[in-house]
C-alpha cells in the first residue's frame, strides 16, 4: 500500500491513529479530523471509512487487522512492531 491508495479522509484518519499508536482514538476525534464535525453516534460514516481503510492495510502476522475497534471508545492502531514491544515490556 502507498499513499496513492488512500483517500484524503483515510490519510487523515491514519495520521490520527498513528499519532496514538497502541492507544485509543475516539470516533469524535476521527470525525473532527477527517470531516471537521462530530457526527451522531448513529451516523456510520467513520465506521464505513475505517472498514475501507482496514481492507487496504496488510494484516498483522496473527492474521488480524491492524485497526482494532474498542467498543464505546473508538479505534486503536496496533501493528506487529507495537505488539512485540508491548509484550516485551510485560515480561
TrEMBL record:
* Keyword Phosphoprotein in annotation: no
> DNA-binding region(s): which residue ranges?
1-79
Matches recorded under Gene3D superfamilies: Winged helix-like DNA-binding domain superfamily/Winged helix DNA-binding domain (1.10.10.10)
Q: Which Pfam families match?
A: Trans_reg_C (PF00486)
Origin, by domain of life?
A: Bacteria
Residue span, OmpR/PhoB-type domain: 1-79
The alphabetical list of record keywords is: DNA-binding
Indicate whether Nucleotidyltransferase appears among the record's keywords. no
Q: Which InterPro entries match?
A: OmpR/PhoB-type_DNA-bd, Sig_transdc_resp-reg_C-effctor, WH-like_DNA-bd_sf
Positions in coiled-coil regions: none
- Output this protein's name: Helix-turn-helix domain-containing protein
Biological classification of the source: Bacteria, Pseudomonadati, Pseudomonadota, Gammaproteobacteria, Alteromonadales
